[in-house]
Request: fold
Amino acid sequence: MGTVFIVHFWLFSTLAIGSALAMVTRRNPVAAALWLVNVMFALAALYVMLGAQFLGATQVLVYAGAVMVVFVFVVMLLNLGVGDDSERGSRVAALTASAISAGLAAELLFVVRSHPLPATLQPVAPDALAPIADSLFRENLVAFEVTSVLLLVAVVGAVVLAKRGRVADEARS
Amino acid sequence: MIREALVVSAILFSIGVLGVLTRRNALILFMCVELMLNAVNLSFIALSRLHGVTGQVFVLFVMTVAAAEAAVGLAIVISVFRHYRTLDLSRIRLLRG
Reply:
């Protein structure tokens, strides 16, 4: 574990956490979405450093490339500005929420710190994709096939939801 | 390295929870849920270095479910916006007693 590795690990970790905080505090949805893209890229770098190169590439393609584009597309489609977002929560509610999430973070960190981890790391295979494919298409084949049904249901559901809104609009006008 | 990755994952998840609890905009709420899913993915990948490659397969499934959730969720957001003309969750209170 060289110094360069550790420096880059903490660099991308800080980038991810800082961008996440920026995302949570932005009022403009487009700014929040772009900060979230930043989080996705930093996490992709962390995935690669942890030996999951394929998932790092998938993270960039699927999340930063597809999911976030859909988010930004919806923001543009609905023409959301800062003014639509009142964000006038009471101070008590904000403090309670901060206390809850700080308590959750403390609890999670306590669990992570106190649980013993095995010292030996599994070696990363040179052809890192073969073990993933082996597990995905042998042990988890049923789950993989069910996933295709899930995606089909999601596509049909999204179309039905969006279309029903349009029909109702036309009936009202 | 694994423990540090788990720490980063815990912090990111808590930030996502903070966003879900404090924000009023439905779209930003969705982004915070995506952030929480990504934090869990980081945990899976870190632990896959200790317990074998199944964790990485789980991450693929989580990504699929997240993509489906984003598609359906954003369709619902569009429907809600068409009906109420706002995404401010404090003003969408049909079921609030």
